[in-house]
Amino acid sequence: xxxxxxxxxxxxxxxxxxxxxxxxxxxxxxxxxxxxxxxxxxxxxxxxxxxxxxxxxxxxxxxxxxxxxxxxxxxxxxxxxxxxxxxxxxxxxxxxxxxxxxxxxxxxxxxxxxxxxxxxxxxxxxxxxxxxxxxxxxxxxxxxxxxxxxxxxxxxxxxxxxxxxxxxxxxxxxxxxxxxxxxxxxxxxxxxxxxxxxxxxxxxxxxxxxxx
Length: 212
Fold this sequence. Notes:
By secondary structure, this protein is mainly alpha-helical. It has 15 helices and 3 strands. It holds the Pfam family BTB.
């Protein structure tokens, strides 16, 4: 109850721009106004933000502006709203819309709860059309990497004959090896027959040999 009231209060002061002392600008902010925020709230939610605000360059700036060149305005706006009211973001459509950008931001700026929310969303939305892209773009995050590898390994027959998979193997031979390891891992894929294993191994070896 207290947490809900606190979150609601923080969201209210953000919306009303009450005593703001910080401006946040995204990479495409030329056509948008900067986002007004509070140093104290953002520093409390992110150790990286705290260090950025404590840097000599930021302290010397008269308008206390932080730039996020890697993010678009709506993505940054969603991130800021999360900083003030994480409960409101859990079911937000914008979380799904900007999940990859928010996930990368959560990793970069060390915002664990947002990272976990985004990771869960990425895992729950895995499909044959996005799994390879997710695997190639995942940073050092073992739970997410393992989930993607497991999904691909469980659905390997869907991927093997696709041009996309062949291109993926050509561009990412090391990840192709990791997929093979995942397929052979009885913890990830507990019920594969010996014949299936042999067929997959032969096909993967053929692909990687052609690449070399």
